[in-house]
Amino acid sequence: MSIRKRMGLAAGALTIAVAAALTGCAASTPSNASSTVTVMWASNEFTPAYIKDFEQKNPKIKIKFIEYDENRLNAMETAGNPPDLVRGSPSANLFARGLAAPLDGYLAKSKVLKTADLESVNNLWRWNGKTRGTGKIYGIIKDYSPDATIWQNTANFDKAGVAPLSTSTPASWDAVLDTAKQLKAKGIELPLGIEWQWGIGGEFQTMVEQQGGHIFNTALTKAQIDTPEGLRAIQWLIDYGKAGVGPTTLNPLADGQDAPSFMNGKMASTMDGFWFGGNLATADGATVAKTAQLVPAPTYGKRISPVLGGVGGWIPEASKNKDAAWKVMEYFMAGKPAVDRASSGWGLPALKSLWKLIPDKESYQKQAVELAKTEVKYVVPLQDSPYISFSQWNGLLDKELQNAIKGGETAKQVASSLQTQMNTLLVQGKDQLG
């Protein structure tokens, strides 16, 4: 499952009633008692085999598995009976509502998960009461990827007679688009995919912050999209859509993702991040793997390489079984599942001690790992308001961009309309939080 697509799995946590958080005073089940931990996760990640392995190693704890469903999560939280461990992405909205329990005390005592072993990307799960990135930690990332890094198939570039992007020096966003236009002119069917169908809010915000701007004011209560930085980012997305160099929600791929097109040679490059390299280790990706390279995230000035998901696990404050849930967390984040994830090449481990397991035998793997070592230095939390969810404003941005691509709206008009709609939602969100 993709880094960006999985972001949607956390959306339900962003709309849960505040009242649910007030049930968090319930005592946790003593660690020496027999107990059942309800885990809400994706079954392709938390497999029956892992459940069996955990229960064999922890005979006093049974796992009740529930496939992630945001509506069911909402209902369970509202009823004051949430799962004990939940899959999700970090968000200021989740933290501000007090729905997630802080894990600092558990980390301090754990012999399995250590704060010193956590990669800095885990700061995405930190919240100081006002902003994300510092303060107490409310979740642990399972794996991650600098999502704006680009995989390119040099065979397509050679065929078109166009120079590929540098594997060491970040290109500007404008240069990336110009290269895609050159490939298009030389007959390459799909020069550049940016997984638009999974949401382009992350790319938009990255472009703004690379220029030194922000999409929210300092208090995180108002949107500021109609700025030079915002207009430049919006114009890039409009130009991308009108150039027809890659899929958008107006011309989506039938598969709903870039992978099949990239692996069959039709797509020259895809902005999918390190995790995507796992596709190249499959039989379907064997051919393109021979000519594939990972290149740095584009920049508009300041070098920022965003992690747009940061998917991991969190323990609800209202859970009545936190101690046992933490045992499951330890197993999934540092035990056999974590070892298997790191060894697969599908993502970067969130634990420093597991980096040695990342596969690097093939040339494309070795090159990608070396780039990742540099790229992770530029991972920083993007601005995040507790009063509006990413899914809310990303959907608005996509709608406005569609109007501009197929109609005559300007970047200025898109920015103005988006800003007005976001501010309405921000007011509503602030009123709900009080």
Automatic annotation (TrEMBL):
SUPFAM superfamilies assigned to the protein according to its UniProt record, in alphabetical order: Periplasmic binding protein-like II
Membrane spanning stretches: none
Pfam families named in the record: SBP_bac_1
Alphabetical list of PROSITE patterns matching this protein: PROKAR_LIPOPROTEIN (PS51257)
Signal peptide segment: 1-33
The keyword Ion transport is assigned to this record: no
Key words of the record: Signal
Xref: InterPro entries: Bact_solute-bd_prot1 (IPR050490), SBP (IPR006059)
Coiled coil: none
Protein name per its UniProtKB record: Extracellular solute-binding protein
Organism: Lacisediminihabitans changchengi
